[in-house]
Amino acid sequence: MDGAGHPSRRALLAGGLASAAVALAGCTTTRAATPATSTSPQARPTTPAGAFTRLMDGNKRWVSGELQHPDRDPNRRQLVAQEQEPFGSILSCIDSRVPPELLFDTGLGDLYVMRTGGEAVEPVVTGSVEYGPMTSGTPLIVVLGHQRCGAVKATYESIRDGKPLPGNLQAIVKALQPAYDQAVREGGADPVETMARAQVTLTAADLRANQDLAPLVAKGALAVVGAYYSLDTGQVEVLAGAP
């Protein structure tokens, strides 16, 4: 201390450096204990049942919030940079609230994803769905519809009221006509939801019977699953075709 009883500048500086060292040590310890946001890569499922289980386990984590965020780091990016081998193909709606990679808790290189309004299918989309199973042995296709689908609702109202949608939106109406017809036959309290589910089951059945995919389904190398996503709960409900 100086003559007036105050600590010297040298003592203050030494004390400040000591406090900073302690603080840095604490920060370092905290960071080291924080778990990584991505897990080690799991072996790629090679069977329909294995791929289906992987997806549904991921959806359970999505619902519970206990996410693993697999395959989402620079190591994974480098691993799949030259070649990909996804274990599943997902045909889903364009809806911003239904991102397949998130709701199945998957990552980079795990899924082929095709997204169209109301899961509308035409030759280019069908070819895209066929790509994985026919070129790299992808063992699972999931047609994923969802609750409160805007494309289905617009199509239902367009056909019911006899008012075509503008531009190329009318192509979606044409593609979803069979689902509308089935919904009318089935009836029910909510015809739009009935139609959305019908679109899933009809599309999955058509893919299952596809001349190029049917042989793979017949020998057990491929499963085509129809599923339905709840916006309210985050849960995926299987409608048909589970392996």
Brief summary:
Helices cover 49% and strands 12% of the residues. It is α/β, with parallel strands linked by helices and 243 residues long. It folds into 2 domains: 1-34; 48-240, Beta-carbonic Anhydrase, Chain A, CATH 3.40.1050.
Gyration radius over CA = 26 Å
Strand content: 5-15%
From the spread of the alpha carbons, the general shape counts as: globular
Number of strands: 5
Within CATH, the superfamily of the largest domain carries the name Carbonic anhydrase
Structure description:
The chain is α/β, with parallel strands linked by helices and 243 residues long. Helix content is 49%, strand content 12%. It contains 9 helices and 5 strands. The protein starts with 8 loop residues before the first helix and ends with a strand.
Descriptive keywords:
243 residues, alpha/beta, Beta-carbonic Anhydrase, Chain A, 2 domains, 5 strands
Chain-wise SSE layout:
Blueprint lengths: L8 H25 L14 H17 L9 H6 L8 E5 L7 H4 L7 E5 L7 H14 L3 E7 L3 H12 L7 H18 L4 H18 L5 H5 L4 E7 L6 E5 L3
Parallel strand pairs: 1-2, 1-3, 3-4
Antiparallel strand pairs: 4-5
